[in-house]
Design brief:
heterodimer; A: alpha+beta; Butyryl-Coa Dehydrogenase, subunit A, domain 1; Butyryl-CoA Dehydrogenase, subunit A, domain 2; Butyryl-CoA Dehydrogenase, subunit A, domain 3; 3 domains; 4-stranded antiparallel sheet; 12 helices; 45% helix; 13% strand; globular; B: alpha+beta; 4-stranded mixed sheet; 3-stranded antiparallel sheet; 10 helices; 53% helix; 14% strand
């Protein structure tokens, strides 16, 4: 055990830091803001493209896919630098982190270059079609049907919660291709162009903002070429779990950085006298101490996972990290909301509260932040589902 | 950061566990709880294995192990609810002597400790329960070549049995540390929750010691605080071990106990409690070992890290004692079941050297102070 990274890893950090100094877009250029999680303004598109071309977009990948074969500690300091400077890796996070990653892992060479590379270079955007009205926590119970007819599928059904679909060029959609097989064994993954006839997107608002991000997506005899099948026919569950597990050693960093982002704001505001001197309230201090411990524990558990993964040990703490991270964010936002009391009634966010390079969700009012934390405890497996997973797969309790 | 044990550390963990599995089985903790053993035989065995010397510096006759290694030992002691003077001697007495007397001054004082010929403890708190040296009111005054002490100390671990008590007093207004022979004080032992960890109230009035038992040259407030960072981390590590044992017992119980025709672990109400216990134990584990690492490297974060470790261990014990005893059902409520041996060790860990809430507030204050403006 030791506290510091090796000199080689620190040299990697310095190299990336210097690259950012030289290549970060001018602040004046960032006035145009993304409208959804699949809408990348031109200035950001150019920046993401430059990151890809210089091997800094996904450092763990080989150069042809926007990386430099970085090891896990190098990837960790890459994320630390982005977090420290409040830079979002991509304004199309699911397109880059899940859709292109799934194609890189499970797709053919042709699919990688036709779909994954343009998504990574931000020339096209992508959304993820997983949940359905009847398939949320029970994702494998999805019923959107795709019937193979010669060299094309005919797709009928509906997706929901499809973030950014109204601005996305393509969907990675999970569909039922064998209704007679056990539910995990009759699913396939398809890339579907959103301008295909019969595909209709209906955006809807969530409780935190006026602009919609979620969509219902309806499929009415939508024709999808067979060549858009990712992975084997009826092997889509593997793609699905693989995509959620992709970069699984690294996912904790986003929870950790989101929590630290909130914690920094909270400390700064309390020191500035927010909440009528809440910084002197022992109840607030007690809760704040616990949130600071959550932040450290998340980072340390994540670092332990990196260390174990580098030694080739089985990594089993993803559910723990997701549970801890998402609930810690919620706990902290609620604490600050209550510490502020009536001062939190005003939802106005100061214009300089966030960096131009990070998502516009990074510095919401504390009421909106609190509500937004439920996106963390509900999506990607609810907290209840992750407790089941921990009990069954980590602790060895029987399924029931 | 490399946040996982080295091969050597894993080997030490296995070795320590093997020794304690053999020498400190639940039967020993039970015999201590029943008043049938004072745990002396275990201490003699550990002395034979040179454990008292383990974490002491080599120039003081020690083996010079680092703090991460010490935390591994402490966690295992907690996992076995082992009795004995190791914790107070190695993590309270020795650090305070080292911090106040300095490495060279401490060497002759710790030689007997390293050899297992003497045990020690510290006397700091006077009833406030915060172990804050600023709150010390007990005094020493010079009388010829002697010091004469006055005051009362509370919650002194092994206060009725330790050979030497490093006692924090005020001398001419300064916070100072005086080595007081255990035989010279009036110790009143409280009826213990866990008979393997005994606290005493110590009466100092009229205690007379030679003036050369005064450690160091200057005010020791900072030295006491630094030493207590080690003591606090140590109790957190012991508490972590007790929590891990409670968790292991209950996790196994939930797989074996059948009701309504199925193991109770198949019920979500049980699963979710187990998942929360696991989360809190792992959260405490990484914070305890982070604190150990900052002590090992004498990193500036050690003050923050020690409080985080103690608070996280406190939160873990709260969860594990509460939900562990509940999930064990009636059998865990019986004297015959081993569970209570570990519940006691875990609960005692929370109740001394500052509560979880005290340390959480300390963490918050430190973070607010260090926030860049």
């Amino acid at each position: 055990m030791r506290l510091t990274y090796s000199p080689e890893v620190e040299a990697f950090r310095a190299e990336f830091s210097a690259w950012l100094d030289a290549n970060l877009p001018d602040e004046a250029a960032t006035a145009v803001r993304p409208r959804s999680s699949a809408d990348i303004p031109a200035w950001s598109q150019q920046f993401q493209c430059r990151m890809f071309d210089d091997g800094w977009l996904v450092p763990g990948y080989p150069p042809e896919f926007g990386g430099r074969n970085a090891d896990l500690y190098e990837q960790a300091v890459f994320w630390e630098e982005l977090g420290r400077r409040r830079i979002t890796q991509s304004f199309n996070p699911q397109g880059l982190g899940i859709v292109s990653a799934s194609i890189i892992t499970f797709g053919t060479d042709e699919q990688k270059h036709r779909w994954a590379v343009p998504i990574m270079r931000a020339e096209r955007t992508a959304a993820l079609g997983m949940s359905e009205p009847g398939a949320g926590s029970d994702l494998a119970g999805l019923s959107t049907r795709a019937v193979l007819d010669g060299d094309r599928f005919i797709v009928n059904g509906q997706k929901v919660w499809t973030s950014g679909a109204h601005h996305a060029d393509v969907l990675l959609a999970f569909v039922r291709t064998d209704p007679d097989a056990p539910k995990h064994k009759g699913i396939s993954a398809l890339i579907i162009e959103t301008d295909t006839p019969g595909l209709v997107r209906r955006p809807f608002r969530d409780i935190t903002r006026p602009e919609p991000d979620f969509n219902e997506v309806f499929f009415d005899d939508v024709e999808v070429p067979l060549e858009n099948l990712v992975g084997e026919l009826n092997d889509g569950w593997r793609v699905c779990t693989g995509s959620l597990a992709h970069e699984r050693e690294m996912l904790w960093i986003l929870w950790s950085q989101g929590l630290d982002r909130m914690l920094d704001d909270m400390l700064e505001q309390l020191n500035d006298g927010a909440g009528a001197g809440a910084a002197g309230d022992p109840v607030v201090l007690d809760g704040l101490g616990s949130s600071i411990m959550d932040s450290w524990a998340l980072r340390l558990l994540g670092q332990r996972q990196l260390a174990r993964s580098r030694r080739g040990l089985h990594v089993a703490d993803q559910s723990l990290l997701k549970l801890l991270g998402s609930e810690a964010q919620q706990k902290l936002a609620l604490l600050m909301l209550e510490a502020l009391g009536p001062a939190a009634l005003d939802r106005t966010v100061p214009p300089d509260a966030q960096s131009p390079y990070e998502s516009d969700r990074a510095a919401l009012s504390w009421a909106d932040r609190y509500f937004f934390t439920f996106a963390g405890t509900i999506s990607g497996g609810t907290s209840e589902i992750h407790r089941n997973i921990i009990a069954e797969r980590v602790l060895g309790q029987p399924r029931g | 950061m490399e946040f996982e044990f080295t091969e050597d550390q894993l080997e030490l963990q296995r070795a320590v566990r093997d020794v304690l599995d053999a020498e400190a089985p639940p039967e020993l903790a039970r015999a201590v709880a029943d008043g049938e053993s004072d745990g002396r035989a275990l201490w003699d065995t550990l002395v034979g294995l040179e454990w008292p010397a383990m974490a002491l510096p080599e120039h003081a006759g020690g083996l010079g192990y680092g703090w991460v290694e010490l935390a591994i030992v402490l966690e295992e002691l907690g996992r076995h609810a082992a009795p004995g003077p190791f914790v107070a001697t190695a993590t309270q007495f020795a650090p305070l002597v080292l911090e106040t007397a300095g490495p060279e001054g401490a060497a002759p004082l710790l030689a007997d400790v390293a050899a297992g010929r003497a045990t020690g403890t510290v006397a700091v708190d006077e009833g406030a329960g915060t172990w804050d040296p600023a709150g010390v009111r007990a005094t020493a005054r010079r009388d010829g070549d002697d010091l004469v002490l006055s005051g009362t100390k509370h919650y002194v671990v092994d206060g009725a049995s330790a050979d030497e008590i490093a006692t924090v007093v005020r001398l001419d207004g300064d916070v100072r540390v005086v080595l007081v022979p255990g035989s010279s004080v009036q110790a009143h032992e409280v009826v213990p929750i866990d008979p393997g960890v005994r606290h005493s109230t110590i009466g100092l009035d009229g205690v007379r010691v030679p003036a050369d038992r005064l450690l160091g040259q200057a005010d020791a407030t900072g030295a006491v605080r630094r030493a207590l960072e080690e003591s606090v981390t140590a109790v957190a590590a012991v508490t972590l071990g007790a929590c891990q044992q409670i968790f292991d017992i209950i996790n196994a119980h939930a797989k074996e106990r059948v009701q309504f025709g199925v193991p109770i672990g198949s019920f979500q109400a049980v699963k979710h409690k187990l998942a929360d216990m696991y989360r809190d134990v792992e959260r405490a584990r990484v914070l305890v070992y982070y604190a150990a690492l900052t002590l090992a490297e004498d990193h500036p974060d050690r003050t923050l890290a020690a409080s985080m470790a103690k608070a996280a261990a406190g939160e873990a014990q709260r969860r594990c004692v509460q939900d562990g005893l509940q999930l064990a059902g009636g059998i865990g409520y019986t004297w015959e079941h081993d569970l209570h041996l570990f519940l006691r060790r875990a609960k005692v860990g929370e109740l001394h050297l500052g509560s979880a809430s005290h340390h959480r507030r300390n963490v918050a204050r430190l973070a607010l102070q260090s926030q860049p403006t």
